[in-house]
Amino acid sequence: MGLPWQQGPLSPGAIVKFLVPEPLPNRLLYLEPLRRRMRVRFGGTGIADSENVFLLFEPGHYPMACFPETDISPNTLQRTEHTSHHPDLGLTSWYTVRAGNKDAARGAWQHTELPACASKLYGRVAFAWPSMDAFYEEDERILGHAFSAPVRQVFVQRSH
User: Which residue in 54, 131, 139 sits closest to 89, CA to CA?
Assistant: First the structure.
């Protein structure tokens, strides 16, 4: 069970708690380095490939892979005028992802006015799982990500 998901100690429906003398904040986000290569395919081509991905965990959400801008293919991201506001991470800018003959409006985003405590997210972009063709961890395709509501686990198809 993930800490921020379902009934884990950082989820909105927590049934367990940390044994600490002070209460935790209502929302606790954290980053974890993936420590494995991750790739994204879209429009029949690889658009992101990195060994420096952070997973962002926040209450009630599946982890999001945050790629360094430098590990994303040039001319793949076109910034849109659409912005939103994340309650903890501030202003969020959205991108249209373009590759091959395909476009995905709001297919990626970046937190652009981060608080100092989240500085490790500067210059990082996350991709919308349902909009991309495929995600890979090392050479294994990640199947059944959480964008599909009935799916509760991430399954990996082994390449043999």
Answer: 54
